[in-house]
Structures are given as structure tokens and as C-alpha cells.
Amino acid sequence: MTQNTSIGIIGSGAMGAGIAQVAAMAGHKVVLYDNNTTALDKAKKSLAATLQKLQDKGKIASADEVQQRFSFADKTGSFADCGLIIEAIIEKLEVKKAVFSDIEKVVSADCILASNTSSLSITSIAAACNKPERVMGLHFFNPAPVMALVEIIPAIQTAPGLIPGAKELMLQWGKTPVIAKDTPGFIVNRVARPFYGEAIRILEEGIADIPTIDWAMTEIGGFRMGPFTLMDYIGHDVNYVVTETVFQSFFYDPRYKPSFSQKRLLEAGWLGRKSGKGFYNYAEGTTMPDPTKDLVLGTRIFERILAMLINEAVDALYLGVASVNDLETAMTKGVNYPKGLLQWCNEWGVDKCLEKLDSLYHEYHEDRYRASTLLRKQAVGNKKFV
Ligand code: NAI
Questions:
Q1: Fewer CB in a 10 Å sphere around the end CB: N or C, the chain?
Q2: In angstroms, how far is CA 220 from the centroid of its own chain?
Q3: pTM tops 0.85, yes or no
């Protein structure tokens, strides 16, 4: 794939429009397709406004020049000349499968088909195609023009020869690609689960309140946002659904168990910032509650969540989901963690991290707190992850 390759995008929502912008700014002709003309119109207007802003700020030379690379379509026929199609429609397997099967009828024989799904199996999407070997996952993060990370996910059917080209293309687009095995949540949405789940568990157990847990993770842990602030920001409709999908896809492994606290927020329509209320209340005039700045309590909270995060990263390494480098890159570029979790484990001490998990396991007798076999192996002689 080169700059001359035309890119087709299916779905002109938040992700599709963002990916389209990235591709056009990298010099490609882009066909943006949506089956909803209102959504397409909205994307057209917002892309024009964004490009104008970028020109005003001096980030691009000419908004018009980039604008001319776009065509907007409400029919898939316009994909005939594309070399790569990226799908970013609603997160429903049956709908995605139907779209991939239809698209295959209009694209050229060597056109590559990619899905931006966050949580569905690329292998099952590929299975809907006559040529499943041309299908892969290209998982961008929100907002796509800003977030550097792209997870490239080969399905088990994907022709291995396609992956270096995809990696090269993402580099040309100014992105940081990592390769992830086609397993639930890929890298980021798997490894990050305890950041949310363990924080909620600590809250439900009454160990600390919401602002105190957020304070511990930002002030002691150095994370940009506390888990509750972040969940409210992402929206519980998105964050809870990813947790539930990952849990189900892992055959109900208790490590990924969703919480009633978050489910109730979703049921109440308290989706977070966008609805004015979530774990926090964002109504005007409301004062945010203060944390209890107790260093001993804060450290206990931070170390518990960190140990669970490290365990996920180590287990993902153990099970071949990604390399050490890609795991570290994914968590620092995809969710802006202050450092890679394996490096954090090295610095903290593999033995200390294991001790923390084992003490949780002994306290609760729950499989949720089982340490990864690799962590246990590394702890013998305190070997570092490299
Ligand atoms: P969105 O709801 O903003 O946009 C989806 C668009 O797809 C809508 O404009 C809709 O009209 C269109 N659409 C739905 N069915 C269609 C069909 N059959 N044919 C053509 N167009 C169709 O959704 P969003 O947030 O952009 O997500 C899209 C995909 O990207 C999902 O798979 C999601 O899991 C994934 N994703 C979302 C992220 C996020 O933070 N929003 C992050 C990374 C991935």
C-alpha cells in the first residue's frame, strides 16, 4: 500500500470520521461511506470545520487540499477502486459480518478489509468473507487523529504477508502500530480491565470512597486520570459494555467480572459526563467531593490496582498476546499510562508484585487474584522483564 492507495471507510461516526481524517492528511484519497445520510452529512461538516481549524493553527498548509481528497458516499459501489477498507460501524457481530460479506462483492480482488472493532473476534468477522485471508483488525483509539496507538490484529485466517505492509502504512500515517493476537480486548482493552474493575471492587468493599481511590491513582500512582473520572469520561455505555463483552469472551473468567455498581449506572442512564451524572455529579453548582488524603490507605489502593494491572500484562505476555515492547507501547500510547507495566513490575520488584497478589488471593480465596504462572516463574531469582 502506498500514498496512491485509495482508502474506504465504512461508518462516519466518531471513529470512522477520525480515521478518514488521518488517512486524508497522510495524502490518500478517502471514500467515507455511511448508510445514514444524516450521520454522513454531520461528518462532512465536522471534518471541514476540523481541517479549517488545523489550517488556522498552522498545522496543515491547506484545508482545501485535504478536503479535495474526500468523497462521501451512501452507496458501497464507490469502494471499487479502494485498496484498503476500514470498517467502523456499530459494534454488533452480525451487522459487521453482513457488511463485510456485502463489501466483498464490490471491492477489487486484492483489496484489504479491516475492522476497527474494540472487542469482537476478527476471526469470526473474517469467516463471513469469501477471502478471509484479506481480513485483519486495525484498532484505532479515540480520538483517532490524536491517539498514536493502532493495534494490528491478524485473524487466524489472515495472510501473514499482509501484516508488514499494514505496519508500514500505519507508520506512514504517523501512528505507532503494535501487533496483537486475536484474543478478547486485544492488548489495551484486556490489560486495562483491572484499572476499572479493581477500583470498583475497592469501592464496593467500602475500603475507600470514589474521590479517595481517584486521588490514590493520580497522586500516588501518577496516572493522568483516576479510574472513576476516566470511566465517567469514557461513558458507562461504552466502558461497561467492553467489560461485559471481554468477560463473556473469556468464558466468564472471574478476573474480568463486571460490577453491579457500574451496571446500575448504565441502567439508570447515568452514563457519566455526557449525561451530567455518573460516579460523580456534573450538574452546575455541584462541588466535587474531597478525597481522604491518607498516604497509607492511598498506597494500599494504588499497589492493589497496580499489582492486578501488572498481572494482566504479564499473563498477556505469557499467553503470546503481544511482545514485551508492544505491551509497553500499547499501555503508554493507548491509555497514556505513566510507564509500561512490565517496566513498572521490574522497578517495583517482581517478588513484591507477586507477594501482593498472593496476599489478596489468600485473603479472598478468589480465582480473580490468581497470579500469572509467568509472574511466579520470574519471581524465582527476581528476574526482570526485558
Ligand atoms: P458511532 O456510533 O459514532 O458511529 C457508527 C457509524 O456507523 C454511524 O454513523 C452509523 O450510521 C454507521 N453505521 C451503522 N451501521 C452501518 C451499516 N450497516 N453500514 C454503514 N454504516 C453503518 O460509533 P463509533 O464510536 O465511531 O464506533 C465505531 C466502531 O469503532 C465500533 O466497532 C467501536 O467498537 C469501535 N471503536 C470505538 C471507539 C470509541 O471510543 N468510540 C474506540 C475504538 C474502536
A1: C
A2: 24
A3: yes
From the first residue on, what is the mean pLDDT of each consecutive set of 10 residues in the chain (386 residues)?
Answer: 92 96 97 96 96 96 96 91 97 96 95 95 98 98 96 98 97 98 97 98 98 98 98 94 94 97 98 97 94 98 98 98 98 96 97 98 97 97 92
Instruction: Let me know if domain 6-179 sits in CATH 3.40.50.720.
Output: yes
276 lines ligand 1 (CB under 6 A): no
Query: 87, 104, 151, 328: which is the annotated catalytic residue?
Result: 151
Sequence spans of domains, the chain: 6-179, 190-379
Adjacency order of strands within the sheet including 176-179: 70-73, 30-33, 6-10, 82-87, 112-115, 135-140, 149-154, 176-179
CATH topology of domain 190-379: N-(1-d-carboxylethyl)-l-norvaline Dehydrogenase; domain 2 (1.10.1040)
**Nearest-CA residue for atom 43 of ligand 1:** 141
Distance 6 CA to ligand 1 centre (A): 21
Please say if 118 is a catalytic residue: yes
Task: From the candidates 104, 115, 139, 346, give the one annotated as an active-site residue.
Answer: 139
Cell numbers placing 170 = 500505519
Q: Which residue has the cell 484489504?
A: 112
| Matching fold, domains 6-179 and 190-379 | no
Scanning the structure block, which residue is given the C-alpha cell 453491579? 260
